[in-house]
Write a structure and sequence with these properties.
744 residues; 27 helices; two-stranded parallel sheet
């Protein structure tokens, strides 16, 4: 493969699997299992102990989620005695049905409750539960404990060796790969925007969908970087610098897409078009046309994509340096090519995106070669240097601590204990030998879920994946027959695919789990069609027990949870908007970086919580459409707020941006309306109403004929405020908030 081919393959892998997190998880787990089998087989271990070692290696690998390597080592060391205790109790209680069931329920409660103690508590609880399950699966006996101890010990040692030596992962390394993924996804978004520029009437919907997908994936990668900056960067100042540059690049790329949409039509494109699947392209298309300006724009978008992927350096000569200087020149009005105003705006957007790429390069790669800089490029560097020098460390906000049954971990522990009790009773009626599959399903559907709707959707997906996996398991079992190592090899393939697909599709993950289990049953000589059918029945029972427990034991209704999260998003949106407007009006600098990150995280939580409402199989179609519309509107509002924050961050250092005290008054109505929305969502009987009135831009009119009302930067701020005002007002209808006219 040529060097260019390797670069393209690396960029594709970085974009499709940010940080290579899925690939690393799959390789590490498969490596630990393979190493365990390679050690146990020469020692003469029989198939049940090989299976036990393989399962223990898998558990020891995926359970440990600590960020720092030292913390991972401590958790892994503590996990071994927990695993040995669990398998011992499993063997001792195997013949004591009632005592064993009671202990299993207590273990499940403690494992779920342990989540409140962070990653280590979660890992130890998971290890305890899964190894106890292992003892049931392989039929552990007291006389066989020494061999099981040896298998589990080898499994944990193999997991440690693979984690820390063969497939090492450090927070800094993960963060570096995520940075590469951000670049790759930014380049793919620019390529999608170029496709949108060239798309004809028949292709424009597909091109727009690619832009939407690219914008969402870029945002997801930015959130992943934000979540790992603290652990992956020793210097807090550097971490905040990277956070700012990533946010700048994201906002610039999204703004460029919006400007392209506007240039394609005779009317202004709504930001909602970038976030709402199925939203039509604005009518009255003007592009594509084959004139000199559009040809130049097409060339410059391709140049911007290359600039994202390849840094300007001696290796690439002066060509990219020339390209960078030309793109940055579009930030000056005199360098804009003759074109309609909407197309000139796109060129300005290209210039701002090039500036964001330059800032990203400086933040990630350090100082750049400045020998070929033009005055426009030198000015951009000076602006970036001044901004970098103004970064201050922020303080973390204290979080409210919930107590008692209000604490999510306590409530979930009670729910899963009740659900598991029901699963044990029902599972025993189905099979006195395989009842634990129902308990396992009940346990799993509670992991990373927080409402009845989420548990229902997860149970449904697990059942579908299990049914399909049973079909695959039948075929694989017939294929391998009694060939032990062929079966183990296929198990490793299924395990890798299970971990690689887990973040993408829970149904797909369940499919590979069930297929692997069919092979394990074959290895244990307990495979039959009836066993796999029983697996489906136990899975359905466990999912049903989980849903019943979630619905009737300390229930958290999906409506209530989404309303709570919606209020949190609106509160964060108000905070970012208020701080940005205050700073743009001449107020003191605020902690906009952290506030914008909290807004993004709150929106991500809401988006995840609404998945049960937007699932394709939901019968409540009107409710599904409303949820999608509300989330899309909130995403557009969040984009406008991030853009305001990015502009406000420039104020202390940017030579061409000055505060405009009139902006404070222009933002008051928006803030009042956001708070009215939050009050009405929290209490539907709230008397608060949304206020309408003159446009945001009209609020700054000086009333002096013939004089400019505001400068270019204030004009940009007003566009963001105006669209934020429209988005907030647009939320009134789906949220059923009354709208009053302007105050007299």
């Amino acid at each position: 493969m040529t060097g260019a081919g390797r670069v393209r393959l690396r960029d594709f892998a970085a974009a499709s699997d940010p940080g290579l997190l899925r690939l690393t998880a799959g390789l590490r787990t498969v490596g630990a299992i393979a190493l365990t089998l390679a050690v146990l087989a020469p020692l003469g271990a029989d198939v049940p102990h090989l299976v036990a070692g393989a399962i223990a290696a898998m558990v020891a690998t995926f359970a440990v989620r600590d960020k720092q390597r030292s913390s991972q080592a401590v958790t892994l060391a503590l996990g071994l005695p927990v695993a040995l205790a669990a398998v011992t109790l499993g063997a001792l209680l195997a013949s004591r049905v009632v005592a064993g069931d009671l202990f299993f329920v207590a273990l499940i409660f403690c494992a779920v409750y342990g989540r409140r103690f962070g990653d280590r508590g979660t890992a130890l609880g998971l290890i305890g539960f899964q190894v106890y399950f292992l003892s049931l699966f392989v039929g552990a006996t007291v006389s066989g404990l020494p061999q099981l101890y040896a298998a589990i010990g080898v499994a944990f040692a193999s997991s440690a060796l693979v984690r820390f030596a063969l497939v090492p992962e450090t927070p800094a390394g993960t963060l570096e790969r995520l940075r590469s993924a951000f670049r790759a996804r930014l380049a793919r978004l620019v390529a999608a925007q170029l496709e949108l520029l060239d798309a004809g009437p028949a292709d424009v919907d597909g091109a727009l969908e690619h832009v939407r997908e690219g914008t969402a994936r870029l945002h997801d990668t930015a959130l992943m970087i934000q979540g790992r900056l603290e652990a992956g960067t020793a210097d807090e100042g550097v971490a905040r610098l990277v956070q700012r540059r990533v946010a700048d690049a994201e906002v610039a790329a999204e703004r460029l897409g919006l400007l392209l949409l506007t240039a394609r039509s005779a009317e202004r494109a709504d930001t909602l078009t970038l976030h709402l699947p199925g939203a039509p392209v604005p009518s009255g298309g003007l592009l594509p046309v084959r004139d000199e300006a559009i040809d130049t724009l097409r060339r410059d978008l391709e140049a911007l994509r290359l600039l994202v992927l390849r840094p300007v350096s001696a290796q690439h000569g002066t060509a990219l340096s020339h390209v960078r200087n030309r793109l940055l020149g579009y930030r000056d009005e005199q360098n804009l090519p003759p074109a309609p105003p909407a197309v000139q705006d796109v060129f300005r957007g290209v210039g701002e995106a090039a500036r964001a790429v330059l800032g990203l390069r400086v933040a990630l790669d350090g100082p750049q070669d400045e020998s070929d800089d033009t005055p426009a490029t030198a000015r951009s560097r000076e602006e970036l240097d001044a901004e970098d020098a103004a970064i201050d460390a922020g303080e973390e906000e204290a979080q409210e601590e919930l107590t008692g049954l209000r604490r999510p971990t306590t409530r979930a522990a009670v729910q899963v204990a009740v659900g598991s009790s029901l699963a044990i009773l029902g599972g025993e009626l189905l099979s006195s030998q395989r009842w634990y599959w129902a308990v396992l399903t009940c346990w799993i559907v509670f992991i990373n879920t927080a409402s009845t709707g989420e548990i229902l959707v997860k149970g449904y997906r697990r059942l579908v994946g299990t049914v399909l996996g049973v079909v695959a398991g039948i075929g694989l079992a017939a294929l391998v027959g009694h060939h032990t190592w062929t079966a183990f090899a296929l198990v490793l393939v299924c395990v890798f695919l299970m971990f690689y697909s887990a973040p993408l599709s829970y149904t797909l993950m369940s499919f590979f789990v069930t297929a692997a289990l069919g092979l394990l049953y074959t290895l244990l000589h307990t495979y039959s069609f009836s066993v796999l059918v029983l697996r489906v029945e136990e899975t359905a029972l466990g999912a049903a027990c989980g849903v019943l427990a979630a619905a009737f034991v300390l229930p958290v209704r999906t409506d209530r949870r989404t309303n709570d999260l919606l209020v949190a998003v609106l509160d964060r949106l108000a905070e970012v908007t208020e701080t940005a407007v205050d700073q743009l009006s001449g107020g003191p600098p605020g902690d906009l970086l952290d506030q914008a990150r909290e807004l993004d995280q709150a929106l991500a939580d809401l988006r995840a919580a609404t998945k049960p409402l937007t699932h394709p199989v939901t019968p409540l179609r009107a409710r599904r459409d409303t949820a999608r519309y509300v989330v899309a509107l909130l995403e557009t509002c969040a984009y406008q707020a991030r853009a305001l924050a990015a502009t406000a961050e420039l104020l202390p250092t940017h030579p061409s941006i000055a505060a405009d005290p009139r902006l404070r008054g222009a933002g008051e109505r928006i803030l009042q309306n956001i708070r009215a929305l939050a009050a009405h969502v929290a209490d539907e009987h709230s008397p608060e109403e949304l206020r309408t009135g003159p446009s945001i831009a009209a609020l700054l009119d000086t009333g002096t004929a013939g004089s400019p009302r505001y400068g270019r930067v204030t004009d940009r701020v007003l566009r963001h405020l105006g669209r934020l005002d429209e988005g907030v007002t647009g939320l009134a209808r789906p949220l059923r908030v009354p709208v009053a006219g302007p105050r007299g």
